[in-house]
From TrEMBL:
It is found in: Nucleus. GO terms for cellular component: nucleus. Keywords: Metal-binding, Nucleus, Zinc, Zinc-finger. Putative transcription activator involved in regulating light control of development. Residues 10-38 are annotated as: Disordered. Pfam families: FAR1 (PF03101), HTH_FAR1 (PF26175), MULE (PF10551), SWIM (PF04434). The keyword Metal-binding applies. It comes from Fraxinus pennsylvanica. It comes from the Eukaryota. This is Protein FAR1-RELATED SEQUENCE. PANTHER family: PROTEIN FAR1-RELATED SEQUENCE 10-RELATED, PROTEIN FAR1-RELATED SEQUENCE 11. Signal peptide: none annotated. The lineage of its organism: Eukaryota, Viridiplantae, Streptophyta, Embryophyta, Tracheophyta. GO terms for biological process: regulation of DNA-templated transcription. GO terms for molecular function: zinc ion binding.
């Protein structure tokens, strides 16, 4: 505390100067006019004193508030009194320390959730009392009681500014914040921009992030009801135009929108093939309305993010998350994903255990790593980067026993026995460490590259947050089926000139079946397989790098059944065969990869065929147009090599013979004639 503040605290230590230490004492310790000095709003007096005069009670409050701020506390209006009872006008007012009084005991209500907030009140007796008087027909307010003894610690100047009484957002700042909210930037980014605009040090604005969120929340309370009505109306309009559009919502006891979730027909189609592994990202909010936002995303066969569904929640609790998961399963015809990746949220973790009991739940490693600087930088100092490298080494291990041993050694080496973040990470290790996850399929979504791709995809529709309906429109644009198909074709064209690196028949076979993205992953393993040696052992094969004399991976192969597995579990984890299994296949004179190890989700399939199968039988013309598109794609793909062209010619000849055996309807002939006329 500064010397000036300390002096202020000692001014009335003399008992003779203490007029009224009890807030319950309503007596007026007024001095005679001869013993008082006039103190108007422009006074330079820094300390309240008995007899000090103010033109208004607001001027007295502002003066005492400034005094309190210099001392390290804040004040609030406590009690007002009228002369000779009610109706005679305000004649006396008390201003007290913000920690005066005691918190009243609230009666519990089982139907109403209780906030477990600790009160700051501790019965402090510091106060200033002012009394109204009239002299020569001019009313004024005079200090008639003052005590500056506190029963609690006072705050330093760099701390007192965080008290609610001194945190204010000016009208101009409010307008800037609302403008920022319309652009969709985060509250943290808003604070940084305002700091730069005002040329203040980080953290020295007269308000906090919480104040900004409360401001946005206040606007949400005003506008959200109308916004919700518009959003529901828009969803119903979309449903009328597209019966395959799906949405669910809940209303609270006052018939106001509580939660809403939606998905598109193309998203449901994508989920049928690519819904084996899902990211449920709940780390974003609609800034303008401070609403938690959940987004279901997956990875398609081209290694690109695909949207599955979206949910807006009023609260982040077990009930809301359980409802969101049920709604999502309903959209996807009850089909649960094999694995789901989320942020570290205990309510969400519990909800997944209840609603998705057969789904393997894991935590997004990139969200965990993002917290490392704030968790460990100050603790580890110069050794932070060394520790981080060791963490990644442990994270990427294959064997659980190796991880457990390495973790203990890491904790000992860096002296982290009592670190709560290390303890929390270890307690949840089965949810993020790869040794515990490798036997489950995650489609490569645990890698940093795909995590950045997913985040960039989500940001595409977080830029429009002015209104809820605008957000819905933005999501629709981002996930539009035609846009997704166009992006896939562009990527395929960029990678169509695939160069074979090994000359192995397995490589050319895989190139013809897998998408360029998936083939590039398999090709990496094929190239590395040439550097490994395989040794037949009693129950399979031992495969290790040719420079190693010990260790290796165990591979089990049953040629007659086309089954192969490796102890590294790469195929189970990513859907791509590992170098160890490929080495054994090559050694065993296998020239094609078994069909079961070329998963449908990584093949060159077109969503057009999926759409064709799901169309109504009476959409004959549109089905023909989609089929023409598929034939065009077949010609393009077949022309890339002699082998492809030979295969296509043979298969199409067989298919054509089978088709000619089927009966022809008069409806089909009319549709074909009409289509030909339109084309010509």
């Amino acid at each position: 505390m500064s010397e000036e503040a300390a002096h202020m605290m000692l001014v009335y230590d003399d008992p003779s100067d203490q007029r009224s230490l009890s807030l319950d004492d309503t007596s007026s310790a007024e001095e005679s006019p001869d013993e008082t000095r006039l103190s108007l709003e422009t006074t330079n007096d820094a300390i309240p004193y008995i007899g000090q005069r103010f033109a208004t009670h607001d001027a007295a409050y502002e003066f005492y508030s400034e005094f309190a701020k210099r001392c390290g506390f804040s004040i609030r209006r406590h009690r007002t009194e009228g002369k000779d009872g009610i109706g005679k006008g305000l004649t006396r007012r008390y201003f007290v320390c913000h920690r005066a009084g005691n918190t009243p005991v609230k009666t519990s209500n089982e139907n109403k959730p209780q906030r477990n907030r600790k009160s700051s009140r501790c019965g402090c007796q510091a106060y200033m009392r002012i009394t109204k008087s009239t002299e020569l027909g001019v009313p004024e307010w005079r200090v008639t009681g003052f005590a500056n003894h506190h029963n609690h610690e006072l705050l330093e100047p760099n701390q007192v500014r965080f008290l609610p009484a001194y945190r204010t957002i000016s009208e101009s700042d409010k307008n800037r914040i609302l403008l920022f909210a319309k652009t969709g930037i985060s509250v943290q980014q808003m604070m940084r921009l305002l700091e730069l605009e005002k040329c203040v040090e980080p953290g020295y604005l007269p308000f906090t992030e919480k104040d900004v969120r409360n401001l946005l929340q206040s606007f949400r309370k005003v506008d959200l009801e109308d916004e919700s009505i518009d959003l529901l109306r828009m969803c119903r309009n979309i449903k009328d135009k597209d019966p395959n559009f799906k949405f669910e919502f809940t209303l609270d006891s006052n018939s106001r929108l509580e939660n809403i979730s939606w998905s598109y027909a193309s998203s449901v189609q994508s989920y049928e093939i690519f819904g084996d592994s899902v990211v449920f990202d709940t780390t974003h909010r609609l800034t303008a309305f401070d609403m938690p936002l959940g987004i279901w995303v997956g990875i398609n066969n081209y290694g690109m993010p695909c949207f599955f569904g979206c949910v807006l929640l009023r609260e982040e609790n077990l009930r809301s998350f359980s409802w969101a998961l049920k709604a999502f399963l309903g959209f996807m015809n009850g089909k649960a994903p094999q694995t789901i990746l989320t942020d570290q949220n205990m309510c969400l973790k519990e909800a997944i255990g209840m609603e998705l009991p057969t789904t393997r739940h894991a935590l997004c490693i990139w969200l965990i790593v993002a917290k490392f600087p704030s968790w460990f930088n100050a603790v580890l100092g110069e050794r932070y980067n060394e520790w981080k490298a060791e963490f990644y080494r442990l994270y990427n291990l294959e064997a659980i026993d190796d991880f457990e041993l390495g973790w203990r050694e890491m904790v000992n080496s860096f002296g982290l026995h009592s670190n709560r973040h290390i303890a929390s990470l270890y307690a949840l290790r089965s949810f993020w460490a790869l040794p515990y996850l490798r036997s489950h399929f995650f489609a490569g979504m645990t890698t940093p590259g795909l995590s950045k791709s997913i985040n960039a995809f989500i940001q595409r529709f977080l830029s429009s947050q002015t209104r809820l309906t605008h957000f819905l429109e933005q999501v629709a644009v981002a996930v539009d089926f035609k846009d997704q198909a166009g992006e896939q074709q562009t990527m395929q064209q960029n990678l169509q000139n695939i160069s074979l690196k090994t000359g192995a028949p397995m490589e050319s076979h895989a190139a013809a079946v897998l998408t360029p993205y998936a083939f590039s992953k398999l090709q990496e393993q094929l190239v590395m397989a040439a550097h490994y040696a395989s040794f037949q052992i009693e129950d399979g094969f031992l495969v290790r790098h040719h420079t190693k004399l010990e260790g290796g991976r165990k591979v089990y192969w049953v040629p007659r059944e086309g089954i192969i597995s490796c102890s590294c579990h790469q195929f189970e984890f990513s859907g791509i065969l590992c170098r160890h299994a490929l080495r054994v296949l090559s050694t065993g004179n296998c020239f094609q990869i078994p069909e079961r190890y070329l998963p449908l989700r990584w093949r060159r399939i077109s969503m057009l065929s999926t759409k064709l199968n799901q169309m109504a039988p009476n959409d004959h013309t549109e089905r023909i147009q989609l089929f023409q598109s598929m034939v065009s794609t077949l010609v393009t793909e077949s022309a890339k090599s002699k082998e492809r062209l030979d295969m296509a010619t043979e298969q199409v000849s067989i298919l054509l013979s089978q088709i000619r055996e089927q009966p022809v309807s008069s409806l089909g002939l009319r549709e074909i004639s009409s289509l030909h006329r339109n084309l010509t």
